[in-house]
Write a structure and sequence with these properties.
This protein is of the alpha/beta class. The chain is about 30% helix and about 20% strand. It has a four-stranded parallel sheet. A three-stranded antiparallel sheet has the order 1-4-5, with no helix packed on it. The longest helix has 14 residues. The N terminus is likely disordered.
Length: about 180
């Protein structure tokens, strides 16, 4: 009797994946520092909210820095808090193909128009990249004469940094731009 092993599931080819659209920027005339991620994960896209994955440390980190429980607030009120403090949010990629939420799976990425964003945020002075994939494009902000920082990712995939270590790194950048 021969045993037959079923073939492995066929891998999804990147070209077969839909081109996903990112989220709009969260900025205003008072924005001084822009946190720039790579591209929203599945949970964020489904919710239409930045950093919606329950294990992402973005909102808990800002809550710790500002002494306000942002997670307890409705999402629009969270964004109001950011704008009032001079912090903006956006992503490097406007659209891309990706299976899942890992940055390593991003293909066919199209960059957002960071130069055009400055019209909406004339006081923008710095960009803080939330993680390595975003930081690969640091030249976009440097080319605009903006200060550039690389922050440790708030993603649950970045388990090598403790929450306190991340908080200290983020605090230093926020303090440098008056959003701490």
């Amino acid at each position: 009797m021969s045993r037959r092993t079923p073939p492995a599931a066929a891998a999804v080819l990147p070209a077969a994946l839909p081109l996903r659209e990112g989220l709009p920027p969260v900025v205003g005339p008072r924005t001084r520092l822009l946190v720039l991620g790579s591209f929203p994960g599945e949970a964020s896209l489904a919710a239409g909210q930045y950093y919606a994955h329950p294990r992402n440390q973005f909102w808990p980190l800002l809550s710790a820095l500002w002494g306000v429980d942002l997670r307890a607030l409705p999402y629009p009120a969270r964004l109001d808090q950011l704008c009032a403090r001079g912090l903006g949010l956006w992503d490097v990629y406007a659209r891309c193909r990706r299976a899942g939420s890992l940055d390593a799976a991003i293909t066919d990425a199209e960059l957002n128009d960071l130069a055009g964003l400055r019209r909406l945020a004339p006081g923008l002075e710095a960009v803080a990249h939330n993680g390595g994939e975003s930081a690969r494009h640091r030249g976009l902000a440097e080319g605009l004469g903006l200060a550039v920082w690389r922050l440790p990712s708030t993603s649950p995939a970045n388990a090598s940094w403790s929450f306190e270590r991340k908080r200290a790194a983020w605090q230093a950048v926020f303090d440098a731009h008056g959003v701490g």
